[in-house]
Amino acid sequence: MDGTGLRSAPEHVAIIMDGNGRWAQARGKPRLFGHHAGAKRVREIVEACPDLGVKYLTIFAFSTENWKRTQSEVSGLMKLFKRYLMSETKRLVSSGVRVRFIGDRIRLDETLVALMDELELLTCDNDLVHLTVALNYGGRDEVARATKRLSREVAAGRIDPESVDAETLARFLDTYVLPDPDLVIRTSGEARISNFLLWQSAYAEYEFIDTLWPDFTREEFASVISGYAVRERRFGAVPG
Ligand code: FPP
Mean pLDDT over all residues of the chain? Predict the structure, then answer.
């Protein structure tokens, strides 16, 4: 809250970018056409963040469940990610965006992983906006991977099992350097969280909006952010 009684902008916004397929179908086009249109929106939303006071933006690009889509959609999406990373690198580096990826890299192809590593390295000194891209990400999978790593530390005698609490586990999550999201937005009218940032969003607010992702403009983003700023969040406490 600031002196005006209004809460400030959310520091960390997470977005489930949904509706690309329906957007394309409504135009009689293949689903990948919608994903390409969706990819174009990403730049606009990232670039809107500094003016809106959003320091961290996390976007759901590909879930652990998305492998169940047709082979042609999956391979089209992977190609799109590679092309996107190649074509956006220069702009992201020069515009002060620090990029990170979360999710399990094990199933992703080598060329894509190399591009991800390179982009993380090239942007590691940037600090204007922290963009995190969830790729082959699932919240349960992340907690399971974190538990595996934590268990190894316990088995090696480096962590006392009695000392393990929520904070200990959080240190093993993919998001360990990020603050928890304040606001999670999902486009396309579906009111589900679909395994996105399950642990981290325990106290987040959710905004489910009808617009399909390729139609989600910077203006609509700004209006969702200002809606957040007038609501109060209590973290389970009684207001003082
Ligand atoms: C959901 O729409 C969208 C995805 C599974 C992919 C998200 C990918 C992008 C927005 C493309 C680019 C991202 C980056 C980081 C370059 P859907 O296919 O589930 O739509 P539907 O619910 O209408 O079928």
Answer: 95
Note the pLDDT tens digit of each residue in 14-31: 999 999 999 999 999 999
**Helix or strand holding residue 76 (H, E):** helix 71-94
pTM, two decimals, is: 0.94
Q: Please name the residue whose Cα sits nearest to atom 15 of ligand 1.
A: 61
Instruction: Please say whether the beta carbons of 177 and 124 come within 8 A.
Output: no
Residue of the CA atom closest to atom 12 of ligand 1: 39
How far apart CA 97 and CA 129 sit, in angstroms, is 5
For the chain, the domains span 12-138+180-228
**Residue found under tokens 């642990």:** 199
What residues contact 5, with CB distance under 8 A and at least 6 apart?
none
Indicate which residue of 66, 104, 126, 215 is catalytic: 66
Query: Residues 123-159: pLDDT tens digits?
Result: 999 999 999 999 999 999 999 999 999 999 999 999 9
Q: Are 23 and 212 in contact (CB under 8 A)?
A: yes
> Looking at the domain covering 12-138+180-228, what would its CATH class be?
alpha beta
